Amino acid sequence: MRPTDYNSHNDGEETRRQLMYIDKLTGFVTSLKDEIGHTPKACVTTFGCQMNARDSEKLLGILITAGFEETEDESEADIILYNTCSVRDNANQRVYGRLGVLKGYKKNNPHLRIALCGCMMQEKTCVDKIKTSYPFVDLIFGTHNIFKFPELLCRMYSSETRMLTDVWEETDTIVEELPVKRKYPYKSGVNIMFGCNNFCTYCIVPYVRGRERSRDPEEILDEIRKLSSTGVIEVMLLGQNVNSYGLNLDTPLSFAGLLRRVEEIDGIKRIRFMTSHPKDLSDELIDVCAHSDKICRHLHLPVQTGSDKLLKAMNRSYTRDHYLRLVDKIRTAIPNISLTTDLIMGFPGETRKDVEDTIDLIKKVKFDNAYTFEYSKRTGTPAASYEDQLSPEIMQEHFDAVLSVVQETARAACATHTGEIHEALIETVSDHDPGMVTGRLSNNLLVHLKGDEAMIGHIYPVKLDICKGFYFLGSMMTNG
Ligand code: SF4
After folding, report:
1. Is the beta carbon of 205 within 6 A of some atom in ligand 1?
2. pLDDT tens-digit profile of 159-173?
3. Domains along the chain?
């Protein structure tokens, strides 16, 4: 049954309930601490996209508020949570591979609890496999009820039953105001909506993330004001297709309208968003971006393929001409915009001609970069039952042919910025050289320059001295 939009509702009562469970959970953590003689440690691992990364910050926030200490070392953890992805089969295989290792840790630490959530747990075949092959897993829940995590942990710690499973088909509930442990003090992802109604024929997301539900704009703006008050200067607005934001709100507000309001928030210096679908990227959105001082000069616009035949088979709802005209419109309005995309190679029925069409489109658009993937058959998606699935060899051939053009185009696009001066938000100290820091430009390019930890979270003018293919070596601009 194809869904209609949900009238999602923000459940304040549920927020209060879960906060109550966090208090109760604190009791379990304290008695565990007494038993093991140290503060119990929690290790949360995220697989997949920025939506998952944001969910993990919420899950970790709940664990830490209940008294766990964060660790990145699974071998010393007392609870291990995997927030899984299922966009490609290799993501599932990685989780199965890791579970084997976790079994060993459980032998050494009988107090260890293992929990799994995220998109992979929305797939019944995966949950059944875990029930039979990995019975030592203690808790399984999905993408629709992550807000129930405090309650589920209390049930897990108070029951003798093996493997508590609670996966929901779908939900229209959005629960706000639960604790969050953010990874970066100066930037944050902000969910603006959940789910997707586009049903691209290769994609599992609509089946694991449910129907589109937009958050109340006041909740979003409140969250961003709070983030700004804690020192966040850059926000990434997140949705599977942000262009569809607001369609199901009682008082509809377009994504462009939401951006205008985010722009007004003091303290926020940079606004990013992901992901925009080419089928409904509006002139209004282009106009708001063009006239904004804060919206970054980077747009990720997944095209997937340059072949009209395949765009149809993928149910992408646009043609290559539509995409090319949209790119022209965007570039005319925002000349210094950096454009990146996603490409799927090896889709069922893909011919050499389709590969040539994709290469031709890449050369026409001159993408600043592209994330290129091999098609991965996902059980339950229409494309999985399409005839003429390609052999791995042919798929690899098509993938390699396109990847070399993508890299050539991206190198050329990057080099055009040599000598320019850009504002860089310093994000980290370089892993290789403690005397170097890494900054991200508004157009999403990275620059490495001399610096130290004190610069992290601040924006500096930087000269792009040497192009190193897909990034730069640069130097700080001084006033002199
Ligand atoms: S727009 Fe298509 S590819 Fe993107 S999440 Fe939705 S169904 Fe998947």
Report:
1. yes
2. 766 799 999 988 877
3. 5-166 (3.40.50.280), 184-267 (3.30.750.210), 297-416 (3.30.750.200), 421-476 (2.40.50)
